[in-house]
TrEMBL record:
InterPro entries: Uncharacterised_YfhO. This is Membrane protein 6-pyruvoyl-tetrahydropterin synthase-related domain-containing protein. PANTHER family: INTEGRAL MEMBRANE PROTEIN, INTEGRAL MEMBRANE PROTEIN-RELATED. Keywords: Membrane, Transmembrane, Transmembrane helix. The chain crosses the membrane at residues 7-25, 68-89, 101-118, 124-142, 154-172, 178-207, 219-238, 285-303, 315-334, 346-368, 375-392, 511-532. It comes from Sodalis ligni.
Amino acid sequence: MKNKNNFALIILNLIIFFILCYALLQNGIWRGHDWLAHFQRLISLNEELDAQQFPPLFNYWLPGQFGYSWQLFYPPLTSFLFLLARIITFNSTDNILQMKIVLFIIFVIAFICAFYAGKREHNSSAAGYLCTILFITSGYFLTNIFIRFALGEMLAMAFMPLFLRGCSSLLGDRRDIWLIPFSALAIALSNMPSLIVTAIFFLLFFIINIKRLINRINIRFFLESLICFMALSAFYWIPLLYHMRHSDIFATHAKLLSYEDVFRFSSGIMENLFSLPSKYGVSNHGMYLSVGVIQLLIAIGYLRYGRSAPAKKVILVALFFILAATHLLPWYLLPDRFSFLKIMQFPWRLLSCATAIVALFTSGMLAGIWQRRPLAILLMAALCIASMFFPMNQALTERHTRLEHMGLWDDYLNNSNIREDNFAHLYNNDFAYFANKNASITTTGYTDGYPDMIITVRGEQTVTLPYIMYAGYYLLVDDKKTDVSRLDNGLVGVKLTAGEHRVSLLYERNIVVVPMMVSIISFFIISFIIIFRHRRVIRIRMFSQRFLPF
């Protein structure tokens, strides 16, 4: 597609980017539904690194955390951004500054991914700029940032256009099919529910294009992609599965919603279609659970005026996702034993994919209109930019310069911790409720980030330690390796004889380190294969140009 001067579109993209950055440049930061959880993750990682705990897994320093682990369970890509922000700020103690840098990086990633996907899909820079405008100004993307503070999901959503471009490339030039495994990997390492959304889309995409996708070349590609995905993410999913099996974690067992609950979290149809603040159902109110009014109208218009039949099919999938996010889809009819979809938790998470679909596949049509009627496109972009005010308003006017009290989050506790009598005391940092009256515990320091204690015991007994029980823990008691005791309250216990004992809590690091080595070795092997194949393609092309000029 031949491009008109795109200077105006570049300016519009810069305006949107500066509006987002304006929210970062103000004093303090906005609060959102998950803001304290992500600040707690950031602070925990910093404290673990300061204590030279490797790998950084357990937080023994933040009051009331009892060795709580975010790093073992939460997808790690945002933690890598925390680490990058820590490096950029030279180990600054300003957690708000570090979080702002993380948000800035996510904004940059979202712009780059949307632009690249749009440009490659339509061979047009104008389409790339327009894809970015539609994607970034959508109600749901801005809600993830400024209302939900859903750090992992906003990062996963930023990669969604790349995954869609990879899928589209399967049906066309195949230039970007490599995006499928690597963007899926980025999404999985950002937010697991978003990976389920991606899987649902790919299943529907495969079904509606099954005749074109079923061939030997694609089957081989899918298998290679799966191997690549599993190998590169082994450092995350192998320890995760281990702890799902042995640690009895609340988030992976008892906290899974039923489909009745999933249905109750649906959004209202009017709120969805007209991008109104949410009031329907049991979801937190005030969210904009919509792709955006302008974006929705463009998607419907594409079904009438768009030229690509495959794109129309995908647009229909987006419209299905939009309706499935509302109470119109009876999620409660699904059997609870079919637990795969429940990992998504909230049906309106489908909007992350629907938004990317609309932005990517309609941007080519808009680029064509830009050539003929630029004022119409400028008006559309102005309306999209104006709509940003509603999700951002509260974030710009209500700022916080100090973090509130950070309690104990229930997600990654074990099911014994979560019992009402136990959790109430843990949440209030009341270890005295669990402590043995005939044993005194004095923390003497930390070795490689793990606590050392002196425990004085009056009479032989099982002593309760102030740490949450996770599989893989073991103890050194007077320099002798000792198994931990699983206590009914979900904390770590140790059997001791009368007297004074030196006790150290340790973790079997190979549970994490070995899968990490698998991923690192896989990275180098896959990189070598990619480079080798790329050079072979270049040599074949050079040979063809030299000996087969026709």
